[in-house]
Each structure stands twice: as structure tokens, then as C-alpha cells.
Automatic annotation (TrEMBL):
<feature type="region of interest" description="Disordered">
    <location>
        <begin position="277"/>
        <end position="291"/>
    </location>
</feature>
<protein>
    <submittedName>
        <fullName>Diguanylate cyclase/phosphodiesterase (GGDEF &amp; EAL domains) with PAS/PAC sensor(S)</fullName>
    </submittedName>
</protein>
<feature type="domain" description="EAL">
    <location>
        <begin position="24"/>
        <end position="277"/>
    </location>
</feature>
Length: 291
């Protein structure tokens, strides 16, 4: 009885485990090939200055066009890349494309900051940090216009090493940003000690701000904290005009979201910038559902 039961339990567990790890291995193999063949691309999402309505920069987001499965989102492959070490070639490929693109736009007269997402695995590898700094140096776009984003939860996993690596970028003049802010439970003193210039409020707090009082309180306190610390705040995931107006009213400097544009192929960015900047500035007369 017992032996059979536990035997079956083990067999069950193993079957599930095997299927999952086989899928992962398969995906990792395909990702390795896609990287070797230069198939990974970058989508760019505009970052908008709320007070002026101007596009001040873009964020580079990895995209994997797959023959059978269509576009595989980064939420499905970054994790696999981190577990297999493929995150290093992936990060270099994305960074290289993004920096070349920033230079190309700059030559066309489009001056955009370029934000790049880095995993902690990359930040903790001093040789990776140096390679990325070398890449930045070999491009025309000034380091101050390059922004390295790292998620709050990843920085806080190992604050000492995290801030050590951040310092390498800081010394090279690259700007630093804490991504998905508000989800990582960091204390105020920890944020104060990080050498960063920007906080990106996670979209889970921004999306329902218009109707959710708790989200309003969280975003408001992040904005206060940032002002105290002299940090710029970028709100992620703005999807509607009411939230845009609330954020502008609260003094949030910049935002990204589908309201302005989804992440787009590079070729569509110049037209998207024109479109966003041509939108009429809504007048601030109408009352907001604040407080
Ligand atoms: P993230 O850096 O926080 O990027 C924002 C994500 O929110 C993007 O998803 C973007 O498409 C999405 N988003 C932007 N505005 C809106 C909106 O208004 N509504 C909604 N519902 N979503 C919005 P994406 O491109 O799927 O990327 C997911 C995550 O994958 C990124 O989150 C980032 O953490 C990671 N990632 C992407 N590219 C890279 C990369 O090159 N390296 C690393 N390490 N991570 C990356
Ligand atoms: Mg990001
Ligand atoms: Mg984010
Ligand atoms: Mg996010």
C-alpha cells in the first residue's frame, strides 16, 4: 500500500517535472539558435514628459520572433535565459542593437534617451558590466542618455553587490533606474543608499489609480519620497487619460503606457514621436477624482 502509494507519488512528480524541464531545455536550445542567428530584435516604447507632452526617450524591450509561435514575449524567455546563462549574449545583442539605433536616430536629429533592462545576473558579473560600459563608450550617444534599468526586487536581493555594480555604470556616466518600483518592499534607507537617478513606479499601482484609493496613496508616497531624494519618477502602464492627468497633477515627471504608444519596431518610432507630440494638450479645468 504505502510503498505503492509513495512510488506512484514519485512517478507523478517525476513525469511533471520531466515535462517542464524538457520544455525549458527545448526553449533554451531554440533561444540559443535564435541568438546565434541574430534573430532577436528590439521593440521601443516611448517615454513621455507629462508637463510638455514631449517624447524624451524610449525603452528597449527584447522581442523573439519565432517561426511557429509568432512573437514570444520576454516574460517567457528572460527567465529561461537567466537560468541557462544565455542572458549574457542576449543582453549584449539587445544592448548593441539599442545603442546603434540611438546613434541612428541622433544622426537623424531625433535626440532620445535609451533605456536598457539588465538582469541582476548581468549586474553581478563585473566582466559583463565592463563589456556594456565599453559598448556605451564605442557609440556616439552620450552615456548620460543611456539609462540602465534594474528591477527593485533584483537590486534588493543583494544590495551590496547590486550597488557595487551600479557604481561601475555610474562612474561611466550612465544613468540608473529602479524598475517595477513598489513591488520589492525596499525600505527608504535602502533606496537612499542606491546610486540611482530614476524610479519607475510599477504599472500594477498605476493602471487602476483612477478608481483605487490604495494605489493613489502608494503612488503619491512614491512621488513624495522621490522628491525628497531628488529622483525622477516615471510611471509605467498609463492606459487612460484620467490617470495621465492625475499623475501630471501629482507632479509625476514622466510616463510610459499604451495611452501614448505600445512598444514599436524602430522604423515606427519617428512617426509615433510626431503623433504623440502633436496631440492636443488637454486643459486642466475639469475636476479630477483625487482625494
Ligand atoms: P519592464 O521593463 O517593466 O517593461 C514594461 C512592460 O510593460 C513591457 O512588457 C511593456 O510592453 C509593458 N507595458 C508598457 N506599457 C503598458 C501598458 O500601458 N499596459 C500594459 N498592460 N503593459 C504595458 P514586455 O515588453 O513584455 O516586457 C516584460 C518585461 O521583460 C520587462 O518589464 C522587463 O523586465 C523584461 N525585459 C524585456 N526586455 C528585456 C531585456 O532586454 N533584458 C532583460 N533583462 N529583461 C527584459
Ligand atoms: Mg523596464
Ligand atoms: Mg517596469
Ligand atoms: Mg514591469
Amino acid at each position: 500500500g504505502q510503498a505503492l502509494d509513495s512510488g506512484m507519488g514519485v512517478a507523478w512528480f517525476d513525469a511533471d517535472y520531466d515535462r517542464e524541464s524538457t520544455e525549458r531545455l527545448h526553449l533554451a536550445g531554440e533561444l540559443r539558435r535564435a541568438l546565434d542567428q541574430g534573430h532577436l530584435t528590439v521593440a521601443y516604447q516611448p517615454k513621455v514628459e507629462l508637463a510638455s507632452g514631449r517624447v524624451v526617450g524610449v525603452e528597449a524591450l527584447a522581442r523573439w520572433p519565432h517561426a511557429e509561435r509568432g512573437m514570444i514575449p520576454p516574460t517567457e524567455f528572460i527567465d529561461v535565459a537567466e537560468r541557462t546563462g544565455l542572458i549574457r549574449p542576449l543582453t549584449l545583442a539587445i544592448t548593441q542593437q539599442a545603442l546603434a539605433q540611438a546613434d541612428a536616430w541622433r544622426r537623424q536629429g531625433l535626440d532620445l534617451s535609451m533605456s536598457i533592462n539588465l538582469s541582476i545576473a548581468v549586474m553581478q558579473d563585473a566582466s559583463m558590466a565592463r563589456q556594456i560600459v565599453a559598448l556605451v563608450r564605442s557609440h556616439e550617444t552620450p552615456p548620460e542618455r543611456i539609462i540602465v534599468e534594474i528591477t527593485e526586487s533584483q537590486v534588493m536581493e543583494d544590495v551590496e553587490r547590486g550597488s557595487g555594480m551600479l557604481a561601475i555604470f555610474g562612474a561611466a556616466g550612465v544613468s540608473l533606474s529602479v524598475d517595477d518600483f513598489g513591488t520589492g518592499y525596499s525600505s527608504l534607507s535602502q533606496v537612499k543608499n542606491l546610486p540611482v537617478q530614476e524610479l519607475k513606479v510599477d504599472r500594477s499601482f498605476v493602471m487602476d489609480m483612477a478608481s483605487n484609493r490604495t494605489d493613489q496613496v502608494i503612488v503619491t508616497s512614491v512621488l513624495r519620497l522621490a522628491e525628497e531624494l531628488g529622483l525622477r519618477v516615471v510611471a509605467e502602464g498609463i492606459e487612460d487619460e484620467t490617470v495621465r492627468r492625475m499623475l501630471e497633477d501629482l507632479g509625476c515627471e514622466q510616463a510610459q503606457g499604451y495611452l501614448f504608444a505600445k512598444p514599436l519596431p524602430a522604423s515606427q518610432i519617428p512617426a509615433a514621436v510626431k503623433d504623440i507630440e502633436a496631440r492636443p494638450r488637454p486643459d486642466a479645468a475639469a475636476p479630477l477624482p483625487l482625494r
